[in-house]
Amino acid sequence: MHLQLQNIVSAAFNPGTASVPFDEVLALRNNLLCAKEKGVLKVEVEGDSKLIIDIVNGVCDPSWRLLKVVKDIKLLSCYFESIRFKHVFREANFVANALANLGHRVEISKLLGGVCSPKSITRSCV
Q1: Nearest to residue 13, comparing CAs of 107, 113, 125, 124?
Q2: Is residue 110 within 8 Å of residue 11, measured between CB atoms?
Q3: Max intra-chain CA distance, the chain
Q4: pLDDT (tens digit per residue) in 58-109
Q5: Which residue has the higher pLDDT, 2 or 82?
Q6: HSE on the CB side for 96, CA within 13 Å?
Q7: Measured between alpha carbons, how far is residue 94 from residues 1, 31, 100, 126 in Å?
Q8: Strand order in the sheet with 82-87
Q9: Quick one: angle between helices 67-77 and 20-37, nearest 10?
Q10: DSSP symbol at 48
C-alpha cells in the first residue's frame, strides 16, 4: 500500500538559545502543537538530530535542560492515533536543512504551512 504523505507545517525560528538540542526539541514540540490544533491524527516526524530522535523514542535519557520540553512532546504524542519519530540524515532532509538555515537568519519566528485535509497522514520536518 502506498500512502501519500503531506507536510502541513514547517517553522523557522531563532529562539536565541545557545543550545542546538534545546532548539531542536522546541521546534518538535511546536510542530506537534500545530498538528494537534489542525486535528491531524497520524504523524510521522523526520528529524536530523539523532540525539533528539533517540531521546523521544526512549533510547536515551534527556539532559535536565531538555526534560520539561521532552515531557511536553510525550504528552502531545498521546493525542495522535499514531506517531513515529525517525532519524534522517541532514543531507537527505532538504526541507529541514533549508528551514534550519532560515531560522538562523530570522529575528521573528516564521510559520510556513500548507493546508491539507485534517486527519490525513502528515510528515513534519524538524
Answers
A1: 107
A2: yes
A3: 43
A4: 999 999 999 999 999 999 999 999 999 999 887 766 666 666 665 555 554 4
A5: 82
A6: 20
A7: 25, 17, 10, 11
A8: 82-87, 42-47, 121-125
A9: 20
A10: S
